[in-house]
């Protein structure tokens, strides 16, 4: 019966081990699947839709081959289509049956310039990421269906035509390991049963003695008996083996028989990887985190946090180069509005006055705060707060940047410095974004379009201003700095032209439109432009205003004296926190930048 059970164990072992090996060999499916895309058009761009990338679940490995430069970027499908709206391109999509197809797409909007067809896709602010190689390019992505991939060469030459997308396929065999182990155990059990059967057969063949009465024996000295046995054996030339040694040899033979069974199992398991076993370990439960509720129907943020950091780095690099070269056109690539105007004046002054200091540089990192606008159209707004990495000049820069169209880069229109004691209001996370508050919004204590004029009135009239009660003037450092400058300018004029000249001051709202982004408490961060002007005039018909102690005004006007006087204008870029309507809080200054803008001879 033992042999029967041994045979059964051998059969089971062979079946289990064979099944386990078969799962890892002949029955194991392919580890990946590939879809090839062959384009034959002459379009400079190819757009691979997100439906193609997600037609098979899993990470997407994109391979592109061309004759020269190969460029690949990815971003939101809507953004990429908006960028391609004024050019011809090849669209790669998938139909309802899962078949990949290509089609030529004509422009849907009138090109804004002749440069549309040849514009470079490199370093565009719309891309979430981009890659460049020569000849061929391969990268692994994990994109959702609302993102697409743009393939190009240099924006002028035809896009690379050989494209393939590969997805991994789950070819794990979680039961191969258990089957092989189970087969090894069954094989070992069969060997044990087989050996037990052999031993049983051998014992059953031995002669059996009948039971006889044993004679009465006398005590015999063991030592004498052993000596006599040795003498007898020696006389016959026979050496007997001790029972202990015979027993040891028998156990050794049985152990050697069991070793091959173990060796077979170990050898089979050596080729099994982790995917040959069931994944029984329980997944760790993530720690609860605060939930941010995104309003239903809200657009996604204009940029991601990673995008914003790249944009800030590009703005910093471009402006730094422009500052070094005193190149206003270069600065205009990344600056606009009040931020560009102050730079242009500074370049003029530095060209005429070598000792004139440059404006503070725009730091590239670390980016501390990113607040993008939630929108699906243009223009788009982005607010960032960046700390200076230079320990010698520690500053915290706040910027409002705008992208006017899909084909424009983000440009900083407002740049200011946050005070060390400034506490920003609570802001939404970068992946949620903030809505842009309309200039005429009635949900704030003061509409954004009225903030600049109200603040200018406080500068002009102080506590007598009708707007003074709306602002936190007690902690406003800009107001105190403006008042100090007024006193200084008045004292200088009195010393140089006592009784022959006078100076007047006036503030007004600047021409730049305000930018406002909502905070979590339904308030808003509002950036506005304010002009401060001072006019020095002679009070005596025979007197003149000289610029001996004012080289900056002299450099801007081109004269060193005037009988009618001079008007000097400063531009203030001011950032406020404006609370919501009904709040007990006041409008609070967050940061600012004040720079000389222009000077001219009074009429």
Automatic annotation (TrEMBL):
Domain DUF8094: 301-600
Compositionally biased residues, Low complexity: 225-235
Span list, region Disordered: 225-252
Transmembrane domains' residue ranges: 175-196, 255-277
UniProtKB keywords: Membrane, Transferase, Transmembrane, Transmembrane helix
Origin superkingdom: Bacteria
One term of GO molecular function: transferase activity
InterPro entries: DUF8094
Protein name: Glycosyl transferase
Species of origin: Microbacterium galbum
């Amino acid at each position: 019966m033992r042999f029967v059970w041994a045979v059964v164990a051998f059969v089971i072992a062979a079946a289990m081990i064979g099944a386990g090996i078969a799962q890892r060999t002949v029955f194991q499916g392919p580890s990946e699947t590939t879809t090839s895309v062959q384009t034959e058009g002459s379009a400079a761009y190819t757009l691979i839709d997100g439906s193609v990338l997600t037609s098979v679940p899993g990470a997407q490995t994109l391979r592109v081959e061309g004759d020269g430069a190969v460029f690949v970027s990815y971003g939101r499908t809507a953004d990429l289509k908006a960028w391609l709206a004024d050019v011809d391109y090849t669209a790669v999509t998938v139909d309802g049956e899962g078949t990949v197809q290509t089609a030529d797409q004509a422009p849907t909007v009138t090109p804004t310039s002749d440069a549309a067809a040849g514009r470079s896709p490199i370093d565009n602010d719309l891309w979430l990421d981009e890659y460049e190689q020569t000849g061929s390019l391969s990268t692994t992505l994990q994109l959702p269906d609302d993102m697409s991939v743009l393939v190009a060469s240099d924006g002028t030459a035809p896009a690379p035509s050989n494209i393939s997308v590969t997805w991994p396929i789950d070819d794990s065999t979680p039961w191969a390991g258990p089957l092989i182990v189970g087969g090894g155990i069954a094989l070992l059990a069969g060997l044990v049963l087989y050996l037990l059967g052999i031993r049983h057969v051998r014992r059953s063949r031995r002669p059996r003695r009948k039971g006889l009465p044993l004679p009465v024996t006398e005590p015999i000295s063991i030592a004498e008996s052993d000596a006599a046995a040795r003498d007898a054996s020696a006389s016959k030339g026979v050496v007997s083996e001790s029972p202990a040694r015979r027993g040891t040899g028998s156990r050794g033979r049985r152990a050697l028989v069991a070793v091959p069974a173990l060796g077979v199992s170990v050898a089979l398991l050596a080729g099994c990887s982790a995917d040959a076993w069931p994944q029984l370990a329980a997944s760790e439960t993530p720690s609860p985190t605060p939930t941010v509720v995104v309003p239903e129907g809200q657009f996604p943020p204009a940029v991601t946090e990673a995008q914003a950091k790249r944009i800030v780095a590009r703005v910093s690099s471009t402006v730094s180069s422009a500052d070094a070269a005193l190149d206003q056109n270069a600065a205009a690539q990344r600056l606009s509005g009040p931020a560009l105007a102050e730079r242009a004046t500074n370049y003029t002054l530095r060209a005429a006055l070598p000792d004139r200091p440059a404006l503070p540089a725009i730091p590239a990192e670390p980016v501390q705060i990113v607040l993008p606008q939630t929108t699906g159209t243009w223009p788009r707004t982005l607010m960032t707060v960046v700390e200076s990495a230079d320990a010698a000049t520690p500053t915290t820069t706040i910027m409002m940047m705008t992208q006017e169209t899909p084909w424009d880069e983000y440009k900083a229109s407002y740049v200011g410095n946050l005070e060390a004691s400034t506490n920003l209001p609570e802001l939404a996370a970068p992946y949620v974004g903030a809505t842009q508050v309309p200039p005429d919004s009635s949900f704030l204590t003061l509409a954004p379009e009225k903030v600049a004029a109200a603040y200018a009135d406080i500068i002009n009239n102080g506590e007598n201003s009708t707007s003074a009660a709306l602002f936190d003037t007690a902690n406003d450092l800009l107001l105190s700095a403006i008042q100090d400058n007024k006193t200084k300018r008045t004292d200088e004029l009195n010393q140089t032209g006592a009784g022959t000249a006078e100076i007047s001051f006036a503030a007004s709202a600047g021409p730049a439109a305000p930018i406002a982004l909502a905070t979590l408490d339904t308030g808003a961060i509002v950036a506005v432009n304010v002009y401060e002007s001072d006019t020095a005039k002679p009070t005596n018909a025979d007197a003149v205003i000289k610029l001996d102690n004012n080289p900056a005004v002299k450099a801007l006007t081109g004269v060193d004296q005037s009988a009618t006087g001079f008007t000097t204008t400063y531009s203030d870029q001011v950032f406020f926190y404006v609370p919501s309507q009904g709040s007990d809080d006041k409008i609070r200054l967050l940061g600012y930048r004040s720079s000389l803008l222009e000077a001219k001879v009074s009429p």
